[in-house]
Design brief:
Elements: H1 18-37, E1 48-53, H2 59-70, E2 74-78, H3 91-99, E3 104-108, H4 112-121, E4 126-130, H5 136-150, E5 157-161, H6 167-179, E6 182-186, H7 195-208, E7 211-215, H8 218-222, E8 227-230, H9 242-250, H10 257-263, E9 268-271, H11 282-291, H12 300-303, H13 310-328
Parallel strand pairs: 1-2, 1-3, 3-4, 5-6, 5-8, 6-7, 8-9
Helix pairs in contact: 1-5, 1-13, 2-13, 3-4, 5-6, 5-13, 6-7
């Protein structure tokens, strides 16, 4: 049966079947090939999209803007000071106003309920650029990167290290369960994900042939993994004071060469970025001055090592976001 996603919102991967996710990946691969070969694909000339960013971002903004341009669309970027969403204007009213002017709306910000409400009141597709709970566009980029590396997704063993309570670990459980992957989350029990979501993903995984494992043992989690994945230890919007407690509890889950070696020579490292792997950032230098840690969630040796695929992954954000917009418009 042909996949038709026209008019669909893209809010979380729980809303899509494995077949539909594969369709996004196939379309992204095709659009990436066209981009690399210089083949024009301005399929949506005359259309316009609104990009609402309550949380700023380098990769997400650039991905949507370049993808929109490549597809022939106009883009309007609304930064945290450029939109009255939820402040002077309700989410419902914002959705209806923008849907009258634009052909699609992207939202990157806080609670999942915000993007869900935008979609409820919008007559045009709404795309989730990141919420506290889910990051579906990142998942498509990651799945495409894994497929390019290994030639397949089903059966891949991916281990995530660090804080497993928020969007990245949540999204990996969902994506892995849908696609028949084996996902291991490595963290202190205090940082394990929501039990209800774990239960839901395990039920999905039972049907797809995948699995969801939670462990406090980083070394055990790394053994035999195809992909080692991590994210920053303190999320956007959290106070600087959170670093003191977080560093102490996250140290055992830093992705090091030892963990990569336990995974094996074919293993790759991935990170959604930005990453604190050296002293090249203001926060990185501040952490070093306060706590004496020159590297945080991943060592520079791993980040810059032969197994790192972080920049291929970052580029794939644009190709997969382009696919999401093309499929739903």
């Amino acid at each position: 049966m042909a996949v038709n996603l026209k008019g669909r919102d893209f809010l979380k991967l729980l809303d899509f079947s494995a077949e539909e996710i594969e369709y996004f990946l196939d379309l992204a691969a095709d659009l990436k090939d066209k981009k690399k070969k210089g083949v024009p694909h301005k399929m949506f000339e005359g259309k316009n999209i609104a990009l609402i960013f309550e949380k700023t971002s380098t990769r997400t903004r650039c991905s949507f803007e370049v993808a929109g341009h490549d597809l022939g669309m106009g883009t309007t970027y609304l930064d945290p000071s450029g939109s009255q969403i939820g402040k002077k204007e309700s989410i419902a009213d914002t959705a209806r106003v923008l849907a009258g002017m634009y052909d699609g709306i992207e939202y990157r910000g806080y609670g999942q309920e915000i993007v869900e409400e935008l979609a409820k009141y919008s007559k045009v597709p709404v795309w989730n650029g990141l919420t506290n709970e889910f990051h579906p566009t990142q998942m498509l980029a990651d799945l495409l990167t894994i497929r390019e590396q290994f030639g397949y997704v089903k059966g891949i063993k991916l281990s995530f290290f660090g804080d497993c309570r928020y969007n990245m670990a949540n999204s990996w459980m969902v994506a892995g369960a849908k696609m028949g992957m084996h996902i291991t989350l490595c963290a202190n029990k205090k940082y394990f994900p929501d039990e209800e979501l774990v239960k839901t993903c395990r039920e999905i995984a039972a049907e797809s042939g995948g699995s969801i494992t939670l462990t406090e043992d980083a070394k055990e989690g790394a053994k035999g993994a195809d992909v080692l994945y991590t994210d920053v230890w303190v999320s956007m919007g959290e106070p600087m004071e959170a670093w003191a407690e977080r560093i102490e509890e996250m140290k055992p889950y830093q992705v090091t060469k030892e963990l990569m070696d336990l995974a094996g020579e074919k293993a790759i490292f991935m990170h959604c970025l930005p990453a604190f792997h050296d002293q090249g950032t203001g926060i990185g230098r501040e952490i070093y001055e306060q706590f004496g840690m020159a590297e945080l969630e991943v060592t520079d040796e791993v980040f810059e090592g032969p197994g790192s695929r972080v920049f291929e992954e970052a580029e794939n954000r644009m190709h997969t976001i382009k696919a999401v917009m093309a499929a739903t418009l």
